[in-house]
Amino acid sequence: MKKPPIIWLNVAVFTITFLFAAIAVPYRAITHGFDGAEITMAIVCFIFCGMSITAGYHRLWSHKTYQAHWSMRLIYALGGAFALQNSILHWSSDHRIHHKHVDNNDVDPYSAKRGFWYSHIGWMLREYQASRYTNYDNVRDLQKDKIVMWQHKNYLLLSVLMNFGIPLLFGILNGDIISSLLLVGFFRLVMSHHTTFFINSLAHIWGKQTYTDKNTARDNGILAFFTFGEGYHNYHHIFENDYRNGIRWYQFDPTKWLIKGCEYVGLTSKLRTSPEDKVEKAKLAMSLKRSQQRLTSHPQAEEMKQKLQAEYDALVVKLNEFYAVKKQILMAKKEQILTDVENSELMKQFAELKENLATQRKSWQLLTANLV
Q1: Residue 1 pLDDT grade (very low, low, confident, very high; cuts 50, 70, 90)
Q2: pTM (2 d.p.)
């Protein structure tokens, strides 16, 4: 089978930047050293690039999980050019195709089922799907955004200005142009590239399938640390319209914190979240599936499966009752349609359901924990 043509520009960019980062940067560190200002600047620029991709390219433009003020969109657009991961329009188009056809080797631009190398970087080295570079029908909504189209039309110029201009200017101000170009330029760029690429590759290989096993996406807290919260990828692939990836307070998701924090000062709005009951039911369904699989060789497998199913069904009933009343309370507060007496009765019912749900959850956890 004839392989698609090589994209020599991409090969050259990835090869040259990697060689500088892997050879020239360590050599410079040993023979000359980097000062604190250079290291700090490299970290700041890495964060700027990373957050522009996660908060901007990904959660804002690809999935429309919130709305952002034009000033933030402009900052994201500049940071995306600095990250050198193609224009907003192209990146978002690829990503929407990935979600729509995840793991489909013929359509998914970076299908993990084609192997680590392909999903990590190989898919960008050849014209596997040449039409992706001309057909933007799936991002027509983004074509109405003036900042998106401005960046798309001027992407090459912006990329050059950001990737050479910022390190060069900092080098002049700090008195060491070579060190700045190497650390803030090449090393920062390579780190930005590969941490992002790990979401396409490692995040589909390494981690837990907490909410679904219908695709290869995994949740991985370690990856989340290096990718500004993107490592909770299994959650993201089933609840892609949620502005959060790490939904628990303790999960490291600085992109979520940035978006939420900016809401308080009016820079972001209309933050979208997934219904709590759907999230919990998805997690519960996976727990049931894993528990059933663990019972395969159990001497009383059928009996235990029936008991497991009964506990699961009981828990789902309690979940439905609890969230139905919770929704009713929220609606009543919003519309102020209840009297004090009616509100008191509803809150009493809610408290009882909450207690019943907690008891049923403990029962479920005890049963699944004791399976052998």
Answers
A1: low
A2: 0.91
